[in-house]
Amino acid sequence: MPSKGEGFGFVFLEAMACGVPVIAGNMNGSTEALCFGALGTLVDPNNIKELEVAIYDIIRNKCNPKEIQKKVLEKYSFSLFFSSP
Question: Is 49 helix (H, G, I), strand (E, B) or coil?
């Protein structure tokens, strides 16, 4: 979803929590959701070749869904946002 005007990008977090690799635009709030590229791939949404390469890289690398889940939950799990009194 390499858009040009995404907000924070909760849909990326939802996808990664299900083990799905993500590609996001590098010009909006999705950069923060993807920890500036640590959790997923950021591309220039105006550069079709860059998007093509990112898609092929994901297909070739056969991402490990469990590893994707682990990374995103280490950063964004509910327990990290919940503070006990």
Answer: helix
CA-CA-CA-CA dihedral for 3, 7, 13, 19, to nearest 10: 0
pTM over 0.90: no
Q: How many CA atoms lie within 13 A of 10 on its CB side?
A: 2
What is the residue-wise DSSP string for 32-78?
A: HHTGGGTSSEEE-TT-HHHHHHHHHHHHHHT--HHHHHHHHHHHH-H
Query: Which domains does the chain carry?
Result: 10-81 (3.40.50.2000)
**pLDDT for res 15:** 93
